[in-house]
TrEMBL record, chain A:
Residues 95-298 form the ABC transmembrane type-1 domain. CDD domains: TM_PBP2. This is Peptide/nickel transport system permease protein. The lineage of its organism: Bacteria, Pseudomonadati, Pseudomonadota, Betaproteobacteria, Chitinivorax. The chain crosses the membrane at residues 12-31, 101-124, 131-155, 175-198, 233-259, 279-302.
Length: 312, 352
């Protein structure tokens, strides 16, 4: 197990180096001269030269690459180009808002989708099943953007059940006033693809021999579904959940923009608008790390849930 | 689809049909696929007609009052509408006014000078079939133009992504070894970041917004799924007997890759293409909504939806209804068609 862990971590190194190299190429060669962007509307040569010196842009490229590499290793990306705050501080200030939205979504989505999938798979082939699946297909096709725009208008402006946008200071006010509507809207879109997927996992398990054996021995339907089938279908379900972990950190760009939630997604939008490269680089690297560790986590989880799986 | 019509003639003579003929017969045996194709053809025709300038040319011109009502609710209150039209009071210019206006002496001259020029006042419409937006642009024209732009972006970006993905996948799967290792590394780098974040990072760098920029960004970031699929197919196919035979008669590597193997995986490319069109149209809508996509001098479904947010507060819902309706119709139809196409072309990968 330990050797496997070590090898997987070592395998990540080329990928991390690749991501670093790609970001470096993108932002240092294709992005134009950051000094021009920073010097603002009235640039003069001295100011541009000063900024270039300050950012180290007059150094040769390999020195700049080494500086970026050190930034990644030490998780210290310097200061934001627009607000002059340390980037780490910005990220730690933004992450709670994103997690306040995304963690409930993650948990509720899994719980609702699994229960519905068990139910739908149990009555597979009937009219109920077909209707639910048809609704899923239709709702999957419509963009989250539309749900968010219409949802904000209907629940926020017309019915007045929730504030149109905003964010509070404490977790309790956020959850009770500001966050519930965005959470509901994301859930609406997120449940249907999971439901479709989980249904197929459950249906596959229901057709296995062990279910027939259990039935023949007189096990109740509830026990078959919740103990036997769910245990086996849990492996792909948990995998799917773990693979959505990176999304928890980024949050939803659309939702955070529409509801003015001060999270990571909104920070990315602002940074892209203002060409705030350190912030974009930091968030991209952070998410790349989370993605890679989530993948490793998934593989280990496989082993834990299914002892038949051999870790190579 | 040409395969279908060609071999339908000799259907009676032999029982064996070509792969495409069989697939097309499977696809079009149900009414659903036929209905989908019919709707998609209408969209395609509108897009092409827009390209050559037949319809929605003047979408940008204000032809109605601001937020003109739709025809079916002409009399709804509208501050600019006919129902609350203001009549202007004509002010007679008398001596009292003349004494305070230093330009009064010249009024006669102004009127003379004005007569030299031919003027025509274009009356603005009070209502349009589906209403108008803030600038008084017709919503019908606008939504047609938006469909053209969005569909163009989706289709061209999907083509670009499938071409890149197929080429890289073919290289990796066919040659294996070092090429494969290098491309696998590139793949792992691209998939280490969530797709939309990568798109945003590139959008922050490319500072020239435009339709071709959006196509480029979506195309160069969206090839990974196709690459995966095509690579595994090439690994499977390269050991088959027909490739050994091609090798024996001295076919070159590129000939074996693109003349012999490619037709055998082309059905997967088609499925990928139609899948990506839907994905990219959704991405384009999001990008344009956030302001990094199609520039506002043009219009797309995403641009329309982002304009709509301010209008909704005023109770002007018709632009949203038009954009949402047309977009959902296209995306739902195309999604259904993709599912049917996959079932017909790739029966093994049929969704469980």
């Amino acid at each position: 197990m330990f050797a496997y862990f070590l090898r997987r971590i070592l395998q990540m190194i080329p990928t991390i180096l690749g991501v670093i190299l790609m970001l470096f190429l993108l932002f240092n060669f294709f992005a134009g001269d950051p000094a021009q962007i920073l010097a603002g509307k009235m640039p003069n040569p001295e100011r541009i030269a000063a900024i270039r010196k300050e950012l180290g842009l007059d150094e040769p490229w390999f020195v700049q690459l080494w500086v970026f590499f050190k930034q990644v290793i030490s998780f210290d990306y310097g200061r934001s180009w627009t607000t002059n705050e340390p980037v780490g501080q910005i990220l730690s200030a933004r992450l709670p808002a994103t997690l306040t939205i995304m963690l409930p979504v993650w948990v509720l989505e899994a719980a609702i989708a699994v229960v519905l999938a068990l139910g739908v798979a149990y009555v597979r082939g009937t009219l109920t099943d077909r209707v639910v699946m048809a609704i899923c297909t239709a709702s999957m096709s419509i963009s989250l953007l539309l749900y968010a725009v219409v949802g904000q208008w209907v629940f926020g402006s017309v019915l007045g059940w929730a504030p149109v946008q905003g964010w509070g200071d404490s977790l309790a006010t956020n959850l009770s006033t500001y966050a519930w509507l965005p959470i509901m809207l994301i859930l609406f879109v997120a449940i249907t693809p999971s439901l479709r997927l989980y249904r197929s996992f459950v249906v596959e398990e229901i057709n296995q021999d062990y279910v027939r054996t259990a039935r023949a021995k007189g096990v109740s339907d509830n026990r078959i579904m919740y103990v036997h089938v769910l245990r086996n279908a849990a492996i792909p379900i948990v995998t799917n959940m773990a693979l959505s972990l990176p999304g928890l950190v980024v949050g939803s760009f659309i939702i955070e923009q529409i509801f003015s939630i001060p999270g990571i997604g909104r920070e990315v939008i602002v940074a892209v608008e203002k060409s705030d490269f350190p912030v974009i680089k930091a968030i991209t690297m952070m998410v790349a790390f989370v993605t890679m560790f989530a993948n490793l986590f998934v593989d280990v989880l496989y082993k834990v849930l299914d002892p038949r799986v051999e870790l190579k | 689809m040409s395969g279908g019509s060609k071999s339908s003639k000799d259907l009676n003579m032999s029982n064996s049909q070509g792969f495409w003929a069989q697939a097309m017969r499977r696809l079009f045996s149900g009414w659903l696929a036929r209905a989908c194709v019919l709707i998609l053809l209408v969209f395609l025709a509108a897009t092409l007609a827009g390209w050559v300038g037949l319809i929605a040319n003047n979408w940008d011109e204000p032809i109605a009052v601001s937020y003109a009502n739709p025809d079916f609710m002409k009399d709804a209150p509208n501050p600019q509408g006919e129902s609350s039209r203001l009549t202007y009071e004509k002010l007679e210019i008398d001596d009292a006014l003349r004494s305070v206006d230093p330009l009064a002496a010249n009024y006669g001259k102004f009127d003379e000078a004005e007569k030299q020029y031919h003027q025509e006042e274009k009356p603005l419409d009070w209502s349009r079939p589906l209403g108008a937006d803030k600038q008084g642009r017709d919503v019908v024209d606008k939504v047609i133009k938006a469909s053209q732009v969005s569909i163009t972006v989706g289709v061209l970006a999907a083509l670009l992504a499938v071409i890149i993905g197929t080429f890289l996948g073919a290289m990796a799967g066919y040659f294996g070894g070092m090429v494969d290792a290098a491309l696998e590394w590139l793949y792992s780098v691209f998939t280490a970041m969530p797709y939309i974040l990568l798109v945003m990072a590139i959008a922050s760098i490319v500072r020239t917004p435009g339709i071709s920029t959006v196509i480029f960004i979506l195309g160069v970031t969206g090839w990974t799924g196709t690459y995966r699929l095509i690579r595994s197919e090439y690994v499977k196919q390269r050991g088959r007997e027909y490739i050994q035979a091609a090798n024996a008669i001295g076919a070159s590597n590129s000939r074996r890759m693109f003349v012999h193997i490619l037709p055998n995986v082309s059905h997967l490319m088609l499925v990928q293409l139609s899948q990506l069109v839907v994905d990219f149209i959704k991405s384009e809508v999001v990008l344009s909504f956030l302001g990094f996509g199609v520039p506002t001098s043009s219009v797309s479904w995403g641009v329309m939806i982002s304009e709509v947010r301010a209008e909704l507060v005023l109770g002007k819902w018709w632009q949203l209804a038009a954009a949402a309706g047309v977009m959902s119709l296209f995306v739902v139809t195309f999604g259904l068609f993709t599912d049917l196409l996959r079932d017909a072309l790739d029966p093994k990968a049929r969704r469980k």
